[in-house]
Amino acid sequence: xxxxxxxxxxxxxxxxxxxxxxxxxxxxxxxxxxxxxxxxxxxxxxxxxxxxxxxxxxxxxxxxxxxxxxxxxxxxxxxxxxxxxxxxxxxxxxxxxxxxxxxxxxxxxxxxxxxxxxxxxxxxxxxxxxxxxxxxxxxxxxxxxxxxxxxxxxxxxxxxxxxxxxxxxxxxxxxxxxxxxxxxxxxxxxxxxxxxxxxxxxxxxxxxxxxxxxxxxxxxxxxxxxxxxxxxxxxxxxxxxxxxxxxxxxxxxxxxxxxxxxxxxxxxxxxxxxxxxxxxxxxxxxxxxxxxxxxxxxxxxxxxxxxxxxxxxxxxxxxxxxxxxxxxxxxx
Amino acid sequence: xxxxxxxxxxxxxxxxxxxxxxxxxxxxxxxxxxxxxxxxxxxxxxxxxxxxxxxxxxxxxxxxxxxxxxxxxxxxxxxxxxxxxxxxxxxxxxxxxxxxxxxxxxxxxxxxxxxxxxxxxxxxxxxxxxxxxxxxxxxxxxxxxxxxxxxxxxxxxxxxxxxxxxxxxxxxxxxxxxxxxxxxxxxxxxxxxxxxxxxxxxxxxxxxxxxxxxxxxxxxxxxxxxxxxxxxxxxxxxxxxxxxxxxxxxxxxxxxxxxxxxxxxxxxxxxxxxxxxxxxxxxxxxxxxxxxxxxxxxxxxxxxxxxxxxxxxxxxxxxxxxxxxxxxxx
Lengths: 332, 330
Hints:
The structure holds two protein chains of two kinds. Chain A is 73% helix and 2% strand. Chain A contains 14 helices and two strands. Chain A has a two-stranded antiparallel sheet. In chain A, a hairpin with a 4-residue loop joins strand 1 and strand 2. Chain B is mostly helical. Chain B has a single domain, classed as ABC transporter involved in vitamin B12 uptake, BtuC. Chain B is globular, with a radius of gyration of 20 Å. Classes of the chains: A mainly alpha, B mainly alpha.
């Protein structure tokens, strides 16, 4: 008697040890361990819980924006205007503070400006059908330019204490966790679940891998991309609220050049610039690696611009390294 | 006439002329010969960088490191002048160009041999090259008084009433035009950008072309590094910071398609001139310079919208069928 054998059809190729070892996230974990070990060896002040908590201030705001940027890049879009959105949102918060608005308004106005800016980007890209890199180079000038027109060479400093407290005190006192860092962690979990565990997340990969096929399978490609631009604007606005509270002032050059740092986080996190691949855990690991390298080097008084050389090299080497390794393996 | 205006270069030229006329009506000083020469001089560096960027964008690439290359080459050249003020000017220019070639070659190698996306490579080298200025110069700046006269006076020499800076731009523009229109490799850049797969089947070697265009882009950025430093009389780590985006903006306004394969020397020059006129007109119009950024942002957006319309009508392509195929692939 022949019993029909039910055979499970694998939905993915069987995983080998070498695949797992060459996984981007594994490499990043290794890198992170090296960074932590190196920093501990170099400076005795590194492994101090208060120092580490202060270190999170330097990257949490950028990291929040990087989460949304990762989704955008996965769907083959990009937003270079995020730093300019931060400037404009910070300006709006400043104007609200000058007119004596209550705390709740100060907290909401930044994200609201972000939504408007993001929606404008999204409209130009998905509504008119323009390439996002050019559109956001344009809006980057436009948004920061508008902030400059209003501010001139002035600085807004009149922020109420209860607002700046959000950026300058801890949400939880032990272990010391700043608001921005907690918000980043919560958002990271939400983003990871949405991207990796929901149908919506799968759709983003589908769009990134083949927008035309995605459209023909009934995915509202343009609507989703529009939403992602709005989301990126929203998080840039939120980052502006946190940043402004932390530094307690708004200048025209606030967050200048952040767009490149944020994109570096995303790319180092293993998100392909061509779209269709990348994970949130990867981006989070890259955020920690970049943040801790910056913090460790500044502990031993390395100038900021030298740190940027090291981070730039890290970006290129970390992308080039695996390509070379794979070539060597294939060559054998 | 309408046919003539449909050429975007002609349309852009007319817009610039109208703009200059309008500004001149408000402030006659703006259209004086001296001032027009000043605007041309002021725009020359931007125009050269935009031409280099155009060649890169034609191959569907992008070079974000161009302003950093400019700054590093300018710094190295200036410190040679500081230490050896007795050398002929060609030594300073040569060193700047060689530096640019090396930096561009590094970009090109990473992109063509390893196949890393251009935006990733040049984003990294944007930070690295600029940071190298501090590593190299120890954070010091080279001031005008330390550079020597030979170094500084050359771009300002007058030849036929116009500065050498302007004539260098003319030579570079002619060179790029000859390269793009008369050589097989130059025509190949359009083919690669228009349809990389087809170009490959035609035997065009994309990696070799990428190596070439990024190296050329580096060389021109290096040359501009010398010109920038000698013109403004100071070299330090922040010169031309963020200028790469202005350069890309000039290309976009000039009708270069970011998707590759479309763009002309004349259009790019006019795109640079457009931005140059705006920058120089603001003080004349008594508008605070704070408006400059917002206006150029609005102009870029307007230009892309117009470009998108023009592309839908179907512009310069060798075969109309290719347009349809490209449209289907999008």
